[in-house]
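User: quick one, fold this
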Amino acid sequence: ARAVTDPVGEWPLRPRPEVAARFAPPLTPWGAGHRGVDLVGEPGDRVRAALPGTVTYAGVLAGRGVLVVSHGPTRTTYEPVAATVSVGDHVDAGDRVGRLQPAPSHCLPRTCLHWGWIDAEGGYLDPLRLVGGGPVRLLPFLGSALGSAGVPGTPVDPVREPAPGGFALDPRLGVL
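Assistant:
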């Protein structure tokens, strides 16, 4: 979910892409998991920087084009991408940084952009938090289940009042 300190970013593909595979962090540093999200695209789609920063890697790793943009204490990663920027270039959020490449991936037969977000200690973060698409969080609410007028069936303010079942949704936490 979006923390108060999360920056607000841009989707790296436009229009807003389908998420083929969500973030599933590993339980241990070398354990199994999905250290980013896979966004469905088409070969040649423009890939855009999610946040402003400096390109710190643009090359090929394990046969795939990889791009890394550093944003102070975090960095975002994009693959498979044919970079249109170079190491040291400054980019703004939404700037084109490359083109999506068709590559062997776990999205076959579709083409996907694997988008990652990593903190300063090398920990993996859910990049969907940057675009308000992190997991839904329900907060316990200890008030009544009545709407703002105190009458059943009255519209409920989703931030201050509970949804049926005694929970309130907090959009600051990245509710979809």
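User: anything notable?
Assistant: Residues 56 and 87 are 5 Å apart (CA to CA).
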